[in-house]
Every structure is written in C-alpha cells, then in structure tokens.
Design goal:
The protein has one domain. The protein is mostly beta strands and 113 residues long. Helix content is 4%, strand content 50%. The strands form two sheets. It has a six-stranded antiparallel beta sheet with strand order 6-1-4-5-8-7, with no helix packed on it. It has a two-stranded antiparallel ribbon with strand order 2-3. The two termini are 24 Å apart.
C-alpha cells in the first residue's frame, strides 16, 4: 500500500480487526442486501463525532470512523466491530463510505458509522 495513508496510519496503528461481510450485489425479496463470506480486515477505529451526509442526502452524526486497510467497500457491506468495542451495537449501520485513491489507484477505505 502507498500514499498518505501509510504515512498517517502506519501498520502499528492498525490495532483493531473487524469483520466485513461484503455485499454480493443482490437483495432478497424484502430489499435486504445479501452477503458473501466474511473477511477479517485490519483497521484503526477513531471515536470522534463528525457530521456526514448519508446516501439519501440526510445529515447524520457519525460517532465512529474506521480507517481500513482493504476494500474498496460499499455502503451495503456489513461491518462487524470487535467484541472489545465499547458500543452496544457491534453491527452499526454504515452512514457513508469514502474509498480513497492515490496516484497508483485505490489506497484505503474510510467508513463512517
């Protein structure tokens, strides 16, 4: 991996492991996303309140940002936080996903929960 992500979030910062169930591109009869096999990904979890717009354009408060060494991810992917996470809901809804590119292509994903 290259780019500013490596400089700002060196591998030593990736102290958490999350589980991502990637959206397989389909929905069930009720409109719920269907998922593929779970994948373990290293990330840095930042607890900081930020205002973001979700995919419907509504302004929401994001309490947690994940900086993930992997992806790109989508808003339909399911994120499962580690059991040590202090929140009650270990599968919070994804408000927004930013897949960051550098000169060489995809670099990392930032997921706002």
């Amino acid at each position: 991996m290259s780019g500013p992500f490596v400089q700002n979030f060196s591998p030593g910062w990736m102290t958490s492991v999350i589980t991502v169930e990637p959206w397989d591109g389909t929905f069930d009869d009720y409109g719920n996303p269907q998922y593929g096999a779970p994948i373990q990904m290293s990330c840095y979890i930042e607890d900081k309140v930020k205002m973001v717009r979700n995919f419907q354009g509504d302004e929401r408060a994001s309490n947690t940002t994940l900086y993930i060494e992997g992806g790109p991810l989508t808003a339909h992917d399911r994120i499962i936080l580690p059991p040590s996470f202090k929140g009650v809901n270990l599968t919070p809804p994804v408000l927004w996903v930013s897949n960051v590119n550098d000169r060489t292509g995809f670099d990392h994903s930032e997921v706002f929960l």
